[in-house]
Amino acid sequence: MKRLIAVGLACMLAVSAAQATTFEEAVALYQDKNYADAFQVARPLAEKGNAEAQVMLATLYENGRGTEKDMSQAVSWYGAAASQNHFGAMFALGMIYLEGRTGTRDLGQAQKWIRKAAEAGHLPAQHALGMYYTGLAGSDPDWAKARVWLTKAADANLADAQYNLGLLYLQGHGVEKNLTTASEWFKKAALQGLPHAALDYGVLVFRGDGVQKDEKIGVQWIVFAANAGNPIAQNRAARAYATGRGVAQDIVQAAKWHTLAIKGGRPDDWLDNAIKQLSRDQRKLVDELVSKFQPSNALGKPVK
């Protein structure tokens, strides 16, 4: 349950027609990766109180783009925009304090700013606040509050929140354990292309836990997650191909996925033994398949 939404400038900047064209120029320069010129255009606007320019300046300082990296300046400019009720700046500021990117973690400030953004309806902040209450930051969990905030973001179709809410129902944290509800939330997130949701949903379908058992559909979801580079899914896909459960037995595919899983830190002694009978030509083919593998998030077709 560690996945949090990254803060991107594009999510925080919303240029309106009322804003000066010079800021639009700064946005264009930023998008062209001409960060030094974007900094020069944004700075005077930020100093005059333009919240969007303040966010841009903070982002440039935070990432060391167009200027020296300076987290104190980033915090200062995010703070200036947050004081003007810029919700993206509130969230960014809260995440800086939460992750200790100033050198010291400040959970009080983190919770304050993330909550402000969450209460204003900022979906990533709602998800982050829900995750905060799971104890992710090291504080004592408050599962009831975690459920409330994750549900808000999940109901608004945020895939990560749907997945993590599914985990609450899977594990019975803050809610009565319910595999059917867990599978429903996993499926929603999986249909949006979230690999680890596809894996967990696929496992539930494969086993028939909380949902109608269908090994073929389950393996399709697992393979989707494997294709996205998830080593646990790659291990499960390897076992499916080695045993012929849910797919036609294929020792070459089993060896391919097993090799990729090992590269991802997921060894399996049983599979080591299962693929011993590979011929020299089959091993050569496996090596070729592994060398050509590129993780892909293209959503597959299992929708059951």
Write the layout of secondary structure elements.
Blueprint: H1 9-12, H2 21-31, H3 35-47, H4 51-63, H5 71-82, H6 87-99, H7 107-119, H8 123-132, H9 143-155, H10 159-171, H11 179-191, H12 195-207, H13 215-227, H14 231-243, H15 251-263, H16 269-274, H17 280-292
Report the CATH superfamily of the domain at 183-304: Tetratricopeptide repeat domain
The major β-sheet equals: none
Our estimate of the beta-strand percent is under 5%
Assign a percent range to the helix content. Answer: 55-70%
Please give the CATH architecture of the domain at 183-304. Answer: Alpha Horseshoe
Gyration radius, to the nearest Å? 23 Å
How many strand elements? 0
In terms of structural class, how would the helical and strand content be classed? mainly alpha
What name is given to the CATH topology of the domain at 183-304?
Serine Threonine Protein Phosphatase 5, Tetratricopeptide repeat
The topology string of helices and strands comes to: HHHHHHHHHHHHHHHHH
The end-to-end distance, rounded to whole angstroms, is 25 Å
Spans where pLDDT lies below 50 across 5 or more residues: 1-7, 14-20
Shape: globular
> What is the CATH domain class of the domain at 183-304?
Mainly Alpha
* Oligomeric description of these chains: single chain
